[in-house]
Amino acid sequence: MGTEKQIETPETEKRPQIDWNIWDVILLAFIIVYVILVPIGGLDYFCGWYNPYLIFRVACCIFPVMSVLLILFTAICTIRLFNNWTKYTQRKKIIRFIQVCVPTVFIASFFISVFTPINIPLYQPGYNPFTYGFRERIRSKADIEDIRNWLETLEDEDCNGESIVLLRDSDSFKSQWPDSIEWPKSLKVFNPNYVKLVLDENGNPKVSLTWGGPFGHWGVVIGMEDMEIPPSDLSRYGEYRLPLEPGVYVWNELQ
What we know:
Blueprint: H1 20-37, H2 42-50, H3 54-83, H4 90-114, H5 128-141, H6 144-151, E1 164-165, H7 185-188, E2 194-199, E3 205-213, E4 216-222, E5 239-245, E6 248-253
Antiparallel strand pairs: 1-2, 2-3, 3-4, 4-6, 5-6
Helix pairs in contact: 1-4, 2-5, 3-4
């Protein structure tokens, strides 16, 4: 018997197929993370609690990129939903429906919040989440008792209501105020942009620390326990205010 020659045919390389089940999970996870960080205000809260100056840097870098990706992913999911409706299983239809509806609800809620008074418990971009986070930052760093003890040592003439710009790269608070004012470490730890000393409605000193720049301002006011905390001023360029404890509140300027 003759030996049969086996003819070897080169196997065609198979291109790796995209596992759309994995992509479904990735797209849905991205949308959920985006909604938590942006419309719900997770990123604003984190910036207020960790470092208020990050909010502008992060917003300028992350928000546009994530928004473009969200629009792109939503468009892909919408096209695939309509093109493959008859082919999809019930489970796949539900996943696609969620991927399309969640961003749509986000966009609608965003526009609603823009035209809604800030005291209604909807997401208000840049105010509620950021201010709540900033309040936690102040709560974790503030030695209220020490600051109040220092306020009691001040004279009325020291509380002239002038906003003093402080040098951020200095170990001590350098300002145009008299050298007779000895700044406590409990205030230096905050490293604010501006400090202002005024008398409250009871004639007691209170200190206002302010941060910010051209895009807005935020701060904390610390006085005695009987100091009145005014309600939020919801007009343009007013202040959204959150009490921290009696005689102490944080605020965020409304643009």
